[in-house]
Amino acid sequence: MPNVKCVFSASLTDGESIRRTTEAYTNLPDTTTLAQAATALDNWLTALDAVSDAAILHSRLTIHPTLPTGLKTATGTAWAASNCNKVGLLRFTSSGTSDSWSNIVPALAASSKVAGKVTSTGASMGTYTALFTTTANNYTNPDSQQILALVFTAITDRTSRKQSINKSGTTF
Amino acid sequence: MANLGVFYNGQIVDGLSIPASVSSYLSLPDSATLAQTASALAVWAAAVDGVVDGAFTQVQATITPTLPTGLKPPTGTAWAASEVAKTGLISFSLTGSTNRWSIAAPTLSSSVISAGKIDFSNPDIIALVDLLLNPTGYFTNPNQLSLEAVLDGLITFRKYTQLRKRSMVAK
Can you give the pTM of this predicted structure? Predict the structure, then answer.
């Protein structure tokens, strides 16, 4: 039974409304349910609350598993030509709202583009979008509303701040 | 059986070694195990990997349950006088290392300070230390080395960006 690295995090605010985050690290058995993990987080928050005069505003639990095998490595022609600001935008409808939600895919693969558009028929893109639209997979928008169907795709540029800093620092 | 909001996030690096994030949201039943959550995260990462030319460097899943009841609210005299810069450090020995690791408690409560030191006989300090040490191997340092025993405690100041910004505004 392997363990999974988990980080408990709490955001506290003091009497001057200044916020601060504190963390604790745990090594939970992988048989732990999410409910049990949430209870463990609650226990830590309660113990922390008792020794702090600040008020806890938010908390979260993050698991850090090792990368799955079979993913591409940072080598090869396609990777060398990849650019994180060339993103694919996949727009989905969600249950209970007329607002759509878009998933961003950085460094969209050249193999996922056909005639300047995102191909929704390619095997990899088909697998990816089906992952979202299959109800049993439980994918949602940020408001926990179930994703229903892919309605729109676009290829766009989103320059990240890190890229701007890098370019201005090295090129100009 | 309730559902919990889960946030999948991965770091991708492109051919210019520029990192970017990719993320998705889920609502998983709270009966799902960490192993099942990690497996679903791996399936997601593999699906993303199929449609990007960048390479993953790390993945993580974040759960944000509601806060437990009974925590103090941001009201009252003790809270109004609290300052995050006033931090309590509790140091622990680690299994497999001679280095120590400390947990930081911002705005250390005045009720757990005695004669200018952290009072290790205080019931709330005892409860926190007991939680961190039992069962063995449950709480760790960031390198997953188990906390072994309390070494000592320290009361200290830690300045933060928000505090500095505020002091600059005041001047």
Answer: 0.85
